[in-house]
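Give me structure tokens for this 438-residue protein.
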Amino acid sequence: MTHPLKLLHPKNLKSFTGHLHGLIRTRLWLKILVAMVLGITGGLIIGQTGLVSQNKAMLLGSWLALPGQVFLGLIQMIVVPLVFASIITGLAASEDIEQLTRMGSRLAFYFVITTVVAIIIGLSLALIIRPGGFIDSMLPQGAPPPQPAINEESTEFPTLINVPDVVSRLLPQNPLGAMVEREMLQIVLFAIIFGAALISTASTYAKPLLELLASIQEVCMTIVRFAMLLAPLAVFGMLAQTTITTGLDALVGMAVYVVTVMAGLLVMLMVYLLIVVFLARKNPLWFLQAVREVQLLAFSTSSSAAVMPLSIQVAEEKLNVRPSTSQLLIPLGATVNMNGTALYQGVATVFLAQVYGVELTVASLLLIVVMTTGASIGSAATPGVGMVILASILTSVGIPAAGIALIIGVDRILDMSRTAINVTGDLTACLVMDRWVK
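Here you go.
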């Protein structure tokens, strides 16, 4: 029996790069950077100078954000078929099953270790800087902060006895239902199992499906080309709306907390650069230059899923990662590799513990590390999901989830920053895994 891999090498994403690569050559990163500056400046002028009323400023911000909503809508529309097709074609582009097994075990180890490192960085900085000690005057004496609107059912963290049930439910009994509900971890697991079975099937049956999936991937990337035309305008409008909505007061009042999170994310970026140097054996400045478009777009959209197509393209075209690695790892990383989010949750948990006067013992800190690592695996690659995860962690260590109301005002800017770190981690992992499997 002839192996299907011998007959069909699935298309990687190089075939779609004509238009998108042209945008990159004309400095897409610079267009996005200029749009970011103009968006923040415009938002401050509209929302903070008093030139227009607050209601009119909010209305104007909504209309300015319309291109951004269209951009996100186009990307979100094709995320599920793109993830499914990319993972399977990535598996099919691998040399053999042994290579996949080797990469899978190393990838799981890498993701867990880097996530734990990120949480420890966040906890350490929060314990050293103690940002919660700077806002005592913001709380009425003896009165808890207002309760934010959070779905309590979605914040329950499984107890030890429920873990087997949770693990068993990771495999979708209804794959189409998982796709409709956008359960990304279930979709990824189904795609991996389906892809492994497909490449182990006789070529007569495997080849038509692989060709169909390659066509689906190509159509999805054509939609991405359309969406990328809107990217600078989308960045401008979304940042303008964010600045109008958030304003400067929230940032000033929570300055120490914001600085603590930002410092942690910067330290995590340094960790990634050290990984690039010592594990991937690459120049860190070359790496930063190669991934800047992805970082800027991730910062602007707050969504790892929104930049997933560009991440795959950059990994292949600029980082010279093989398609078999990039097309498998980027969708998987966008689902399970949330180191920026994990670091943020560590800082936020300690911060709110300090605000409420909750003493965190060594056992509590270890529990936070374990729970944050587990909760960040499989979290949706969409804006704001960190808040839902954080609520479950707070409750588990005796901190009122109502404290989220204190930090929700500055969450948008922190969400943008941690998303940029998340996608940087995915691209770093691509370099490391591509070298290790070779």
